[in-house]
Amino acid sequence: MVKELIVASNNPNKIREIKQILSQYPMRILSMGEIGVNIDVDEDGTTFMQNAYKKAKSVYDFLGRRFMVLADDSGLMVKGLDGDPGVHSARFAGEHGNDEKNNEKLLRLLKNKNTDSRMAKFLCAMVLILETDKMIEVQGEIKGVICKEERGNNKFGYDPLFYVPEYGMTFGEMPAKLKNSISHRAKALEKLKIELGKYIEKKV
Prior knowledge:
By secondary structure, the chain is α/β, with parallel strands linked by helices. It is globular and about 55 Å long. The chain contains five helices and seven strands, in the order E-H-E-H-E-H-E-E-E-E-H-H. Strand 4 (119-131) and strand 5 form a beta hairpin. The protein has a seven-stranded mixed sheet with strand order 2-1-3-4-5-6-7.
């Protein structure tokens, strides 16, 4: 029987998305808040995967290695900024989670830059620790272009600046259902679902 899976997050939207995509598997998916756990992990890795692993491993060890633990880290990488803001996406302008300041800085650094320099991608790295010596690592990404001004009512993160050519709109303009179906996290989760299925088949 598959044990419970703990998501190293308390983000309700993220938890809901993970539960939906992994719903076919016989397991209980819970946030840290749902099991009364609250620990801070210093995300000091140089890559998204390093940060995702550190979060997953810290929570896995804290829980006494009794549960599977899933963690992710994601952010924006811009070609003309040599991959920045990268792992510093949430604190690009200095203050963690200040979307307005982060967007202002991004626009300032890209001022007068051509379209090629504005090419960007959102990347999501996920690590699922299954057992002490077994884990799954996956990445998902979506490519786009940084606009010269914000567009759309969804002001979350860099969404109003991230334009997806195939859909002719920014993440900030997209209906939530569409964005969640094509996002970097959704793509990472689809890969995770496949790998998790292989693991479960071996266990049955």
